[in-house]
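User: quick one, fold this
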Amino acid sequence: MPRFSLSLLLLLSLFAPVPSSRLPSCYEVRAAFQLQQVGRARLVPEVPLEESDLQICDNKASTCCTHKMEESYQAAVKRELAHNIQALNFELKYMIDAHISAFQGTFTYLIEKAANQTLSLFDSSYQPLAQEVQEPVRELFTDISLNILGEDMPVEGAVSRFFDALFPLVYNHLLSPTRAPLSEDYLECLRLTRQDINPFGPSFQGMVTELSKSLWASRMMKQSLNMAIHTINSTEHAGMTRECTRALVRMQYCPHCQGLTLIRPCVGYCLNVMRGCLASLADLDAPWRDFISLLENIAGQMSGSHDLELALLGIRDMVRESIEYALTQGRNLTSMVEKVCGQLHEEISHKQPREVTFQNDEDVDETKHPSPAHVRREFIMYMKLSKAFYAVLAERLCDGDLSVRDGSTCWNGEDVVESYTKNVMSNDMKAQVNNPEVKVRGRNVVISQVIDQLRHFIKVVSL
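Assistant:
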Protein backbone atom coordinates (compact mmCIF):
# COMPACT_ATOMS: atom_id res chain seq x y z
CA MET A 1 0.00 0.00 0.00
CA PRO A 2 1.34 3.48 -0.82
CA ARG A 3 2.78 5.37 2.16
CA PHE A 4 0.43 8.36 1.72
CA SER A 5 -2.63 6.09 1.90
CA LEU A 6 -1.55 4.67 5.29
CA SER A 7 -0.92 8.16 6.65
CA LEU A 8 -4.34 9.25 5.45
CA LEU A 9 -6.02 6.38 7.25
CA LEU A 10 -4.25 7.19 10.51
CA LEU A 11 -5.24 10.83 10.20
CA LEU A 12 -8.88 10.00 9.55
CA SER A 13 -8.96 7.63 12.51
CA LEU A 14 -8.05 10.48 14.87
CA PHE A 15 -11.19 12.36 13.85
CA ALA A 16 -13.48 9.34 13.64
CA PRO A 17 -16.50 9.58 16.02
CA VAL A 18 -15.94 7.75 19.37
CA PRO A 19 -18.95 5.79 20.67
CA SER A 20 -20.56 7.90 23.41
CA SER A 21 -21.04 6.55 26.97
CA ARG A 22 -24.52 5.36 27.94
CA LEU A 23 -27.08 8.18 28.09
CA PRO A 24 -28.41 9.09 31.57
CA SER A 25 -31.42 6.91 32.48
CA CYS A 26 -33.78 6.34 35.41
CA TYR A 27 -34.07 2.62 34.67
CA GLU A 28 -32.59 1.47 38.00
CA VAL A 29 -34.81 3.88 39.93
CA ARG A 30 -37.91 2.60 38.13
CA ALA A 31 -36.87 -1.01 38.79
CA ALA A 32 -36.42 -0.31 42.52
CA PHE A 33 -39.70 1.63 42.59
CA GLN A 34 -41.52 -1.43 41.27
CA LEU A 35 -39.52 -4.08 43.12
CA GLN A 36 -40.13 -2.45 46.49
CA GLN A 37 -43.79 -1.90 45.58
CA VAL A 38 -43.58 1.82 46.21
CA GLY A 39 -45.91 2.76 43.37
CA ARG A 40 -46.63 2.58 39.68
CA ALA A 41 -43.67 2.63 37.30
CA ARG A 42 -45.24 5.37 35.17
CA LEU A 43 -44.57 7.86 37.99
CA VAL A 44 -40.81 7.51 37.39
CA PRO A 45 -39.43 9.63 34.52
CA GLU A 46 -37.49 7.95 31.72
CA VAL A 47 -34.45 10.20 32.14
CA PRO A 48 -33.29 12.53 34.93
CA LEU A 49 -35.07 15.87 35.09
CA GLU A 50 -33.17 19.13 35.16
CA GLU A 51 -35.93 20.83 37.13
CA SER A 52 -38.33 19.22 39.62
CA ASP A 53 -40.96 20.04 42.19
CA LEU A 54 -39.34 18.03 45.02
CA GLN A 55 -40.12 19.07 48.59
CA ILE A 56 -38.15 16.47 50.58
CA CYS A 57 -35.23 15.25 48.47
CA ASP A 58 -33.14 18.32 47.72
CA ASN A 59 -31.04 17.49 44.65
CA LYS A 60 -28.58 20.07 43.31
CA ALA A 61 -28.24 18.26 39.97
CA SER A 62 -30.72 16.47 37.77
CA THR A 63 -33.03 13.97 39.50
CA CYS A 64 -35.07 10.85 38.79
CA CYS A 65 -37.71 11.86 41.34
CA THR A 66 -40.87 13.94 41.27
CA HIS A 67 -43.21 15.26 43.93
CA LYS A 68 -45.68 12.47 43.08
CA MET A 69 -42.93 9.94 43.73
CA GLU A 70 -42.18 11.60 47.08
CA GLU A 71 -45.83 11.11 48.06
CA SER A 72 -45.51 7.42 47.20
CA TYR A 73 -42.26 7.23 49.15
CA GLN A 74 -43.96 8.73 52.22
CA ALA A 75 -46.70 6.12 52.10
CA ALA A 76 -44.05 3.42 51.62
CA VAL A 77 -41.94 4.39 54.65
CA LYS A 78 -45.04 4.43 56.84
CA ARG A 79 -45.92 0.91 55.75
CA GLU A 80 -42.34 -0.29 56.10
CA LEU A 81 -41.79 1.09 59.59
CA ALA A 82 -45.13 -0.27 60.80
CA HIS A 83 -44.28 -3.64 59.28
CA ASN A 84 -40.81 -3.67 60.86
CA ILE A 85 -42.19 -2.81 64.30
CA GLN A 86 -44.83 -5.52 63.90
CA ALA A 87 -42.10 -7.99 62.99
CA LEU A 88 -40.18 -7.14 66.16
CA ASN A 89 -43.38 -7.34 68.21
CA PHE A 90 -44.39 -10.65 66.67
CA GLU A 91 -42.08 -12.88 68.70
CA LEU A 92 -42.98 -11.15 71.96
CA LYS A 93 -46.71 -11.27 71.20
CA TYR A 94 -46.41 -14.90 70.13
CA MET A 95 -44.84 -15.87 73.45
CA ILE A 96 -47.48 -13.99 75.44
CA ASP A 97 -50.35 -15.42 73.36
CA ALA A 98 -48.86 -18.90 73.75
CA HIS A 99 -48.69 -18.46 77.51
CA ILE A 100 -52.27 -17.15 77.62
CA SER A 101 -53.35 -20.33 75.82
CA ALA A 102 -51.17 -22.50 78.07
CA PHE A 103 -52.49 -20.70 81.15
CA GLN A 104 -56.09 -21.18 80.03
CA GLY A 105 -55.48 -24.82 79.15
CA THR A 106 -53.79 -25.54 82.48
CA PHE A 107 -56.47 -23.67 84.37
CA THR A 108 -59.30 -25.53 82.60
CA TYR A 109 -57.53 -28.81 83.33
CA LEU A 110 -57.09 -27.99 87.03
CA ILE A 111 -60.71 -26.88 87.40
CA GLU A 112 -61.99 -30.08 85.80
CA LYS A 113 -59.60 -32.23 87.81
CA ALA A 114 -60.48 -30.55 91.11
CA ALA A 115 -64.23 -30.76 90.37
CA ASN A 116 -63.97 -34.46 89.51
CA GLN A 117 -61.91 -35.18 92.63
CA THR A 118 -64.45 -33.36 94.78
CA LEU A 119 -67.32 -35.30 93.20
CA SER A 120 -65.40 -38.54 93.67
CA LEU A 121 -65.29 -37.77 97.40
CA PHE A 122 -69.07 -38.08 97.54
CA ASP A 123 -69.11 -41.17 95.33
CA SER A 124 -66.63 -42.93 97.58
CA SER A 125 -67.37 -41.56 101.06
CA TYR A 126 -70.82 -39.96 101.14
CA GLN A 127 -72.81 -41.95 98.62
CA PRO A 128 -76.26 -40.73 99.74
CA LEU A 129 -75.27 -37.18 98.70
CA ALA A 130 -73.56 -38.09 95.43
CA GLN A 131 -76.44 -37.40 93.06
CA GLU A 132 -77.80 -34.21 94.59
CA VAL A 133 -74.41 -32.62 95.26
CA GLN A 134 -73.30 -32.62 91.63
CA GLU A 135 -74.97 -29.33 90.74
CA PRO A 136 -73.62 -27.36 93.77
CA VAL A 137 -70.10 -28.69 93.09
CA ARG A 138 -70.23 -27.72 89.42
CA GLU A 139 -71.58 -24.28 90.33
CA LEU A 140 -68.72 -23.77 92.80
CA PHE A 141 -66.07 -24.51 90.19
CA THR A 142 -67.88 -22.44 87.57
CA ASP A 143 -67.82 -19.48 89.98
CA ILE A 144 -64.10 -20.06 90.59
CA SER A 145 -63.53 -20.08 86.83
CA LEU A 146 -65.43 -16.82 86.40
CA ASN A 147 -63.40 -15.26 89.20
CA ILE A 148 -60.11 -15.98 87.44
CA LEU A 149 -61.51 -14.69 84.15
CA GLY A 150 -62.09 -11.35 85.86
CA GLU A 151 -65.84 -11.51 86.43
CA ASP A 152 -67.34 -9.90 89.54
CA MET A 153 -67.50 -13.19 91.42
CA PRO A 154 -66.10 -12.86 94.99
CA VAL A 155 -64.59 -16.05 96.35
CA GLU A 156 -66.36 -15.81 99.70
CA GLY A 157 -69.74 -15.57 97.98
CA ALA A 158 -69.01 -18.61 95.79
CA VAL A 159 -67.84 -20.74 98.73
CA SER A 160 -70.75 -19.53 100.85
CA ARG A 161 -73.31 -20.53 98.20
CA PHE A 162 -71.74 -23.97 97.95
CA PHE A 163 -71.93 -24.62 101.71
CA ASP A 164 -75.46 -23.17 101.83
CA ALA A 165 -76.45 -25.83 99.29
CA LEU A 166 -74.39 -28.56 100.99
CA PHE A 167 -75.81 -28.16 104.50
CA PRO A 168 -79.39 -29.28 103.73
CA LEU A 169 -77.99 -32.35 101.95
CA VAL A 170 -75.68 -33.26 104.83
CA TYR A 171 -78.43 -32.70 107.37
CA ASN A 172 -81.05 -34.61 105.40
CA HIS A 173 -78.94 -37.61 104.41
CA LEU A 174 -76.24 -37.87 107.07
CA LEU A 175 -77.37 -36.17 110.27
CA SER A 176 -81.02 -37.30 110.23
CA PRO A 177 -81.18 -40.29 107.89
CA THR A 178 -83.99 -42.01 109.83
CA ARG A 179 -86.30 -39.04 109.83
CA ALA A 180 -89.04 -38.23 107.36
CA PRO A 181 -87.95 -36.56 104.10
CA LEU A 182 -87.56 -32.84 104.62
CA SER A 183 -89.97 -30.44 102.96
CA GLU A 184 -88.81 -27.73 100.61
CA ASP A 185 -89.58 -25.11 103.25
CA TYR A 186 -87.48 -26.95 105.79
CA LEU A 187 -84.60 -27.32 103.34
CA GLU A 188 -84.81 -23.62 102.56
CA CYS A 189 -84.68 -22.85 106.28
CA LEU A 190 -81.50 -24.91 106.54
CA ARG A 191 -79.95 -22.97 103.67
CA LEU A 192 -80.83 -19.65 105.26
CA THR A 193 -79.52 -20.56 108.72
CA ARG A 194 -76.27 -22.22 107.66
CA GLN A 195 -74.14 -19.11 108.25
CA ASP A 196 -75.62 -18.52 111.72
CA ILE A 197 -75.30 -22.15 112.80
CA ASN A 198 -71.84 -22.60 111.24
CA PRO A 199 -72.13 -26.39 110.94
CA PHE A 200 -68.84 -26.83 109.04
CA GLY A 201 -66.48 -25.20 111.48
CA PRO A 202 -63.20 -23.45 110.60
CA SER A 203 -62.70 -25.25 107.26
CA PHE A 204 -65.10 -22.84 105.59
CA GLN A 205 -63.00 -19.76 106.34
CA GLY A 206 -59.79 -21.65 105.61
CA MET A 207 -61.12 -22.57 102.19
CA VAL A 208 -62.09 -18.96 101.49
CA THR A 209 -58.66 -17.69 102.55
CA GLU A 210 -56.65 -20.21 100.51
CA LEU A 211 -58.76 -19.79 97.38
CA SER A 212 -58.81 -15.98 97.63
CA LYS A 213 -55.01 -15.76 97.66
CA SER A 214 -54.49 -18.23 94.84
CA LEU A 215 -57.29 -16.95 92.63
CA TRP A 216 -56.10 -13.36 93.10
CA ALA A 217 -52.62 -14.24 91.83
CA SER A 218 -54.00 -16.19 88.87
CA ARG A 219 -56.48 -13.44 88.00
CA MET A 220 -53.71 -10.83 88.15
CA MET A 221 -51.50 -12.94 85.90
CA LYS A 222 -54.27 -13.23 83.31
CA GLN A 223 -55.02 -9.50 83.46
CA SER A 224 -51.29 -8.75 83.20
CA LEU A 225 -50.96 -10.84 80.05
CA ASN A 226 -53.91 -9.01 78.50
CA MET A 227 -52.31 -5.69 79.50
CA ALA A 228 -49.07 -6.75 77.81
CA ILE A 229 -50.88 -7.53 74.56
CA HIS A 230 -52.75 -4.20 74.74
CA THR A 231 -49.47 -2.32 75.24
CA ILE A 232 -47.76 -4.03 72.31
CA ASN A 233 -50.72 -3.59 69.98
CA SER A 234 -50.92 0.11 70.80
CA THR A 235 -47.32 0.66 69.71
CA GLU A 236 -48.19 -0.65 66.24
CA HIS A 237 -50.96 1.85 65.66
CA ALA A 238 -49.56 5.03 67.19
CA GLY A 239 -48.92 6.70 63.83
CA MET A 240 -45.92 8.76 62.70
CA THR A 241 -45.34 12.48 62.70
CA ARG A 242 -44.83 14.45 59.49
CA GLU A 243 -41.23 15.13 60.51
CA CYS A 244 -40.56 11.43 61.03
CA THR A 245 -42.06 10.49 57.67
CA ARG A 246 -39.99 13.06 55.81
CA ALA A 247 -36.81 11.99 57.65
CA LEU A 248 -37.43 8.35 56.71
CA VAL A 249 -37.89 9.32 53.04
CA ARG A 250 -34.63 11.28 53.10
CA MET A 251 -32.86 8.32 54.63
CA GLN A 252 -34.26 5.49 52.55
CA TYR A 253 -35.36 6.91 49.21
CA CYS A 254 -33.72 10.25 48.50
CA PRO A 255 -30.53 8.44 47.35
CA HIS A 256 -32.68 6.86 44.63
CA CYS A 257 -33.31 10.29 43.18
CA GLN A 258 -29.61 10.44 42.35
CA GLY A 259 -29.68 6.92 40.94
CA LEU A 260 -28.10 5.46 44.11
CA THR A 261 -30.51 2.59 44.60
CA LEU A 262 -28.06 0.27 46.37
CA ILE A 263 -26.48 2.68 48.86
CA ARG A 264 -27.51 2.25 52.50
CA PRO A 265 -27.69 4.76 55.37
CA CYS A 266 -24.78 5.16 57.76
CA VAL A 267 -25.60 3.44 61.05
CA GLY A 268 -25.28 6.65 63.10
CA TYR A 269 -27.60 8.43 60.68
CA CYS A 270 -30.10 5.56 60.89
CA LEU A 271 -30.02 5.61 64.71
CA ASN A 272 -30.72 9.35 64.83
CA VAL A 273 -33.67 9.00 62.43
CA MET A 274 -35.14 5.96 64.19
CA ARG A 275 -34.63 7.36 67.69
CA GLY A 276 -36.34 10.55 66.62
CA CYS A 277 -39.24 8.62 65.11
CA LEU A 278 -39.53 6.26 68.09
CA ALA A 279 -38.90 8.80 70.85
CA SER A 280 -42.35 8.23 72.38
CA LEU A 281 -41.92 4.46 72.26
CA ALA A 282 -38.60 4.78 74.09
CA ASP A 283 -40.59 6.44 76.91
CA LEU A 284 -42.20 3.04 77.46
CA ASP A 285 -38.88 1.63 78.62
CA ALA A 286 -39.18 2.47 82.34
CA PRO A 287 -42.84 1.42 82.85
CA TRP A 288 -42.27 -1.72 80.75
CA ARG A 289 -39.34 -2.73 82.97
CA ASP A 290 -41.53 -2.17 86.03
CA PHE A 291 -44.27 -4.22 84.40
CA ILE A 292 -41.92 -7.18 83.79
CA SER A 293 -40.82 -6.99 87.43
CA LEU A 294 -44.52 -7.12 88.39
CA LEU A 295 -44.96 -10.24 86.25
CA GLU A 296 -42.00 -11.86 88.01
CA ASN A 297 -43.53 -11.03 91.39
CA ILE A 298 -46.95 -12.45 90.50
CA ALA A 299 -45.36 -15.60 89.04
CA GLY A 300 -43.38 -16.02 92.26
CA GLN A 301 -46.55 -15.82 94.33
CA MET A 302 -48.30 -18.31 92.04
CA SER A 303 -45.54 -20.85 92.60
CA GLY A 304 -45.32 -20.13 96.33
CA SER A 305 -47.98 -19.38 98.90
CA HIS A 306 -50.61 -18.71 96.22
CA ASP A 307 -50.22 -21.94 94.24
CA LEU A 308 -53.46 -22.38 92.28
CA GLU A 309 -52.99 -26.12 91.77
CA LEU A 310 -52.59 -26.82 95.48
CA ALA A 311 -55.56 -24.59 96.35
CA LEU A 312 -57.92 -26.17 93.81
CA LEU A 313 -56.92 -29.74 94.54
CA GLY A 314 -57.16 -28.99 98.26
CA ILE A 315 -60.89 -28.24 97.99
CA ARG A 316 -61.70 -31.97 98.25
CA ASP A 317 -59.95 -32.31 101.62
CA MET A 318 -61.51 -29.12 102.94
CA VAL A 319 -64.99 -30.32 101.99
CA ARG A 320 -64.30 -33.66 103.69
CA GLU A 321 -63.06 -31.91 106.85
CA SER A 322 -66.15 -29.69 106.84
CA ILE A 323 -68.55 -32.65 106.59
CA GLU A 324 -66.71 -34.62 109.27
CA TYR A 325 -66.81 -31.60 111.56
CA ALA A 326 -70.59 -31.37 111.04
CA LEU A 327 -70.97 -35.08 111.84
CA THR A 328 -69.06 -34.71 115.11
CA GLN A 329 -71.41 -31.87 116.05
CA GLY A 330 -74.50 -33.90 115.20
CA ARG A 331 -76.47 -33.55 118.46
CA ASN A 332 -75.71 -29.85 118.87
CA LEU A 333 -76.56 -29.11 115.25
CA THR A 334 -79.85 -30.99 115.42
CA SER A 335 -80.81 -29.06 118.55
CA MET A 336 -79.97 -25.69 116.99
CA VAL A 337 -81.74 -26.55 113.73
CA GLU A 338 -84.93 -27.64 115.47
CA LYS A 339 -85.00 -24.45 117.50
CA VAL A 340 -84.91 -22.38 114.31
CA CYS A 341 -86.63 -24.52 111.69
CA GLY A 342 -88.93 -26.69 113.83
CA GLN A 343 -88.81 -30.15 115.36
CA LEU A 344 -88.82 -33.28 113.23
CA HIS A 345 -90.43 -36.54 114.27
CA GLU A 346 -89.07 -40.01 113.81
CA GLU A 347 -90.78 -41.81 110.93
CA ILE A 348 -90.23 -44.94 109.00
CA SER A 349 -88.18 -43.84 106.05
CA HIS A 350 -86.75 -45.52 103.02
CA LYS A 351 -83.55 -43.50 103.45
CA GLN A 352 -80.54 -45.62 104.20
CA PRO A 353 -78.19 -44.74 107.07
CA ARG A 354 -74.99 -43.17 105.88
CA GLU A 355 -72.08 -45.32 104.90
CA VAL A 356 -68.73 -43.60 105.14
CA THR A 357 -65.76 -45.19 103.40
CA PHE A 358 -62.54 -43.40 102.52
CA GLN A 359 -60.38 -43.72 99.46
CA ASN A 360 -57.01 -42.19 98.77
CA ASP A 361 -56.69 -39.32 96.29
CA GLU A 362 -54.57 -41.70 94.21
CA ASP A 363 -57.77 -43.52 93.23
CA VAL A 364 -58.75 -40.49 91.16
CA ASP A 365 -57.56 -40.85 87.59
CA GLU A 366 -54.79 -38.38 86.74
CA THR A 367 -54.59 -36.93 83.23
CA LYS A 368 -51.13 -36.10 81.99
CA HIS A 369 -50.68 -32.39 81.60
CA PRO A 370 -47.71 -29.97 81.52
CA SER A 371 -46.73 -28.75 84.96
CA PRO A 372 -48.16 -25.23 85.55
CA ALA A 373 -44.93 -24.32 87.36
CA HIS A 374 -42.82 -25.43 84.39
CA VAL A 375 -44.89 -23.42 81.88
CA ARG A 376 -44.80 -20.37 84.14
CA ARG A 377 -41.04 -20.62 84.73
CA GLU A 378 -40.22 -20.80 81.01
CA PHE A 379 -42.46 -17.83 80.26
CA ILE A 380 -40.97 -15.60 82.96
CA MET A 381 -37.44 -16.44 81.81
CA TYR A 382 -38.37 -15.25 78.32
CA MET A 383 -40.12 -12.11 79.56
CA LYS A 384 -37.04 -11.14 81.58
CA LEU A 385 -35.14 -11.00 78.30
CA SER A 386 -37.69 -8.48 76.96
CA LYS A 387 -37.11 -5.92 79.72
CA ALA A 388 -35.08 -3.69 77.38
CA PHE A 389 -37.46 -4.24 74.44
CA TYR A 390 -38.44 -0.57 74.03
CA ALA A 391 -34.97 0.75 74.84
CA VAL A 392 -33.33 -1.00 71.88
CA LEU A 393 -36.03 -0.74 69.21
CA ALA A 394 -34.03 1.77 67.13
CA GLU A 395 -30.90 -0.39 67.33
CA ARG A 396 -32.77 -3.48 66.22
CA LEU A 397 -34.39 -1.64 63.31
CA CYS A 398 -31.04 -0.27 62.15
CA ASP A 399 -29.32 -3.63 62.42
CA GLY A 400 -28.96 -5.92 59.44
CA ASP A 401 -29.76 -4.73 55.93
CA LEU A 402 -31.15 -1.28 56.72
CA SER A 403 -27.83 0.42 57.48
CA VAL A 404 -24.08 -0.17 57.23
CA ARG A 405 -21.35 0.33 59.78
CA ASP A 406 -18.80 3.09 59.39
CA GLY A 407 -15.91 2.05 57.19
CA SER A 408 -18.05 1.35 54.15
CA THR A 409 -19.46 4.08 51.97
CA CYS A 410 -22.90 5.06 53.19
CA TRP A 411 -25.61 7.69 52.85
CA ASN A 412 -25.68 10.52 55.40
CA GLY A 413 -28.85 12.20 54.20
CA GLU A 414 -27.10 14.42 51.68
CA ASP A 415 -24.31 12.50 50.04
CA VAL A 416 -22.27 9.31 49.93
CA VAL A 417 -19.61 9.42 52.66
CA GLU A 418 -17.13 7.23 54.46
CA SER A 419 -18.66 7.86 57.88
CA TYR A 420 -21.41 9.80 59.64
CA THR A 421 -19.99 12.80 61.49
CA LYS A 422 -22.97 14.26 63.36
CA ASN A 423 -23.63 13.50 67.04
CA VAL A 424 -25.73 10.38 67.64
CA MET A 425 -28.47 11.04 70.21
CA SER A 426 -29.43 8.65 72.99
CA ASN A 427 -32.93 7.12 73.26
CA ASP A 428 -34.00 9.52 75.98
CA MET A 429 -36.80 11.90 74.99
CA LYS A 430 -34.90 14.89 76.39
CA ALA A 431 -31.96 14.12 74.13
CA GLN A 432 -34.19 14.33 71.05
CA VAL A 433 -34.32 18.12 71.37
CA ASN A 434 -30.89 18.11 69.76
CA ASN A 435 -31.59 15.42 67.16
CA PRO A 436 -30.03 16.69 63.92
CA GLU A 437 -32.23 14.55 61.65
CA VAL A 438 -35.75 14.60 63.13
CA LYS A 439 -37.50 17.43 64.89
CA VAL A 440 -39.35 15.85 67.84
CA ARG A 441 -42.14 18.19 68.86
CA GLY A 442 -43.60 16.22 71.77
CA ARG A 443 -44.89 12.91 73.02
CA ASN A 444 -47.29 10.77 71.02
CA VAL A 445 -50.78 11.03 72.55
CA VAL A 446 -51.60 7.33 72.04
CA ILE A 447 -48.32 6.17 73.57
CA SER A 448 -48.71 8.59 76.49
CA GLN A 449 -52.13 7.09 77.21
CA VAL A 450 -50.67 3.57 77.11
CA ILE A 451 -47.90 4.61 79.51
CA ASP A 452 -50.48 6.05 81.92
CA GLN A 453 -52.56 2.87 81.69
CA LEU A 454 -49.52 0.69 82.29
CA ARG A 455 -48.42 2.71 85.31
CA HIS A 456 -51.95 2.71 86.74
CA PHE A 457 -52.19 -1.05 86.28
CA ILE A 458 -48.86 -1.60 88.06
CA LYS A 459 -49.96 0.66 90.92
CA VAL A 460 -53.32 -1.10 91.40
CA VAL A 461 -51.89 -4.63 91.26
CA SER A 462 -49.02 -3.70 93.60
CA LEU A 463 -51.34 -2.45 96.34
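User: anything notable?
Assistant: The first strand starts at residue 410 and ends at 411.
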